Structure prediction request, 260 residues.
Amino acid sequence: MKRFDTELLSIDPVASGYYRISFRWDSHAGIPAPGAFLTVKVGSGLDPVLRRPFAFSSYDGESASFIFQERGRGTKALAALKPGSALDVLGPLGKGFANPPAGSQPVLVAGGIGLGPMLYLAKSLMQSAAKGEHRPPLLVLGFRSKNLCPSLPGLVPEGSVLCTDDGSRGFAGTVADYLKTYRYNLPVCFYACGPAPMMAAVAERAVAINAPFQAATEQWMACGVGACMGCAVAMKDGTYQRACAEGPVFDGLQVDWRRA
Prediction:
């Protein structure tokens, strides 16, 4: 983990209200793992006070990127940046995804802004699959409607499945609906990031076919470094884990998604 000042290389709209920022990565900060995150200080003043957390959506050794949705003052300020703008970055932070079991097929599920970490993981798993470590990953993406489907040429793997709740593009239905229709060639392992109802549906499917499930949680974060409990994730055993320190990737079968 390192805090460093860097340069924004590009900012591109990828869907209605969604953007992708690419920036130069400081090699002394270390290699970010798929599932890990960074925080960005927005603006040079005291408002907003808190840094903003984002999952890595790509890393190529020289640059990294993240995808965000414009929702409040902080993300609105990010969306207004131009190439060449300065960024104050802290990262990589958190625990990323573990490798899939040998010979298994990874099924990656993303909903909404959960797309970012799944894109980075998909690229990593395609490389390890090419080495024969496991079968090629399947990426399943879910959005409410076609206007929220991202335009990311070269980043979404060929063969990925696109689902829309209203049937306006791709598979008509939620990712949960699609996972019920998919013919599984066992063994399978699940990875997911998205809203709690979607994560609960993936957990249910994983239990049904006795498959492991790694879940990247999306929590509101205050410090991002484990000093507070602002990003607590409820577990089935009654305990709470910090998304920024013990996570953001957890065993998805141990998370209590009803309280997430």
Observations:
- The chain has two domains: 2-93, 105-216.
